[in-house]
Prior knowledge:
This is Nucleotide-diphospho-sugar transferase domain-containing protein. The protein is an alpha/beta fold and 198 residues long. 23% of the residues lie in helices and 15% in strands. It has a single domain, classed as Spore Coat Polysaccharide Biosynthesis Protein SpsA, Chain A (Alpha-Beta Complex), CATH 3.90.550.10. Helix 1 packs across helix 2. It is globular, with a radius of gyration of 17 Å.
Amino acid sequence: MTEMGASLWPTQPVDPPAWASAMHKQAFNKLRALELTHYSRVIFVDNDVMLRANVDHLAFHPAPAAVWFPVNGSSGGMTTFNSGVMILAPDLRILRSLQVAIAAPRPPLSESDGDDGSDQELLFHATSRNWTWSVLPVAYNTHRAMCLSNASWADVRILHAIHGYDGKIPPPYRDHIAKYGTRRSPSWERGVAENWYT
Length: 198
């Protein structure tokens, strides 16, 4: 990666809270992005996403920002915060407050509030007093299980959860779907083939 011009910043893992779900325990490491204070903006992407178009312009978008997913994969209705793609303004004070929240007892939340034992539960609820989150268009973090039109699939810039391309869903993700409910778009297979691999 360094040969391609990337800078690598060694860091230490974040100890997850006791209430973290098995699926999300390692995801709390993304909080370390808040330590990169030598940058005014950090565009964070999970390691299971595929960039389909240049997103450099997100560096000029207000921070913090993220996409809110439709709860059941369809458009409209209730949405939930997703931390798979975020625009952050690194801030050590925010990181310290999150570390305090990790050590504290879990606040009572409902599943509709994003109560899934994840880093995004912590990020959204623990920062809501200090941050006003900006909502990114779903094209910047499109989950592969979303129900979208072919036209919307063609506009996707960042695809999330690419581990499902071969039709085999890893057990933790399968359990997540069983618990919280989501469904694949009927146009998924055709949309990917027509728009991305031809």
